[in-house]
Amino acid sequence: MTSIRSIKGTQDILPGQSQRWQALETTIRNIMDTYGYSEIRTPAFERTELFSRGVGTETDIVSKEMYSWTDQGGENLTLKPELTAPVVRSFIQHNLGGQSPMNKLYYIDALFRRERPQKGRYRQFHQFGIEAFGSEHPEIDAEVIALAMTVFNNIGLEGLTLKLNSIGSPECRSDYRNALRDFLKPHFSDLSETSQKRFENNPLRILDTKVPHEIEILKDAPQISDSWTAEDKTHFEEVCSFLDEMGIQYSIEPNLVRGLDYYTRTTFEITSTALGAQNAICGGGRYDGLVEMLGGKPTPGIGFAAGMERILLALGNVETNSKTTQVYIVGLGDAVRPTVVKLAEDLRHNNIRTQLDVLRRSMKAQMRDANKSSATIAVIIGDKELKSGLAEIKDLKTGDQEPVKIKGLVDHINSLTL
Ligand code: HAM
Fold first, then answer.
1. Domains, the chain
2. Percentage of residues in the chain with pLDDT exceeding 70?
3. Is the pTM above the cut of 0.70?
């Protein structure tokens, strides 16, 4: 019979890799604590409407990439492709804004997008991210960006570029949309099919193009900063000055619009030279209209999300070793089994990392396994030891062996430095 394999674009995280994930998650959680962010966990699936309204029907995510279905009760549901909309939904539903003027939330979670799989791009992937609700002021923009950089610097990611832009307030964007359409109109027939479609619905996304001759055309295009309101300009300048103050380097990218519809003002992306085509480690920005758009009281918000697989890829795929055993129990013969099973349990209850052979292997095979493990000592109990009441403790580094009373083994092992 053929075996069943995992779905394309999904990955198993196996022992050896899972330790790297745990280490990354621990660093993230510690840094979140330092910055005063609390964890939020939301369901794996939501109503499809949350994403079509929140992220935007014209976006790639909603128009092409969602795993959606109608369930037995006739509800249209979707596996979450991103977390900003679910977190906003939860923020509104539980009236978090009514309980505190500032809410700083973080998540580490699995997401689903039906994209074409390639290195760094998967159909199930993981993000850590934050969403901060309540402040429209640039100090929170700077804090959100600083937090992302702190995580990346802390884990030793190198070759990062922080790309920064402001896409202004909604008024500014409608001005700019018109200016951009006017500019692109004479070039319309030279545009790719995708860009021609975007021309009507979402011309700003044309700025995202990777097509060389479109990039060439766009060189002379009007810039969004030309349409900024005076407040947009001040906001952006203040974000920049706070980043300068903190010594965070950035590059201003007038064409950075991001692929989700909810953004206002600050947008940013962090890319890594250690990755290939999928080089965005992290993306985020401000979304001052989203809470209201999803039915809440007008509340400004800003956040980012970073791809965990991409971070680990950029760090280099070094396998870490899961060998953390301290004591290896070698048991020989049917009669000793109850004694060694109980001994292993007692040692574990004393927080001693213990392995017990459960394959009923020969002495030689068990000793080979003990030596391969990271155990410091092996406890050997066979019929002879059971009879004499003395186990043999073998130092696996020096090979020295000493007899120790079976009854006092836990206390004895507890007194050793393992
Ligand atoms: P996003 O740019 O769609 O933003 O995703 C953020 C990050 O998730 C990307 O920079 C990338 O590292 C990772 N990522 C996205 N798609 C995949 C994939 N198919 N495979 C592997 N990694 C992927 C958002 O999701 C926004 N919700 C971010 C945000 C939060 N904005 C404000 N708050």
1. 15-169+246-315 (3.30.930.10), 171-228 (no CATH), 326-415 (3.40.50.800)
2. 98
3. yes
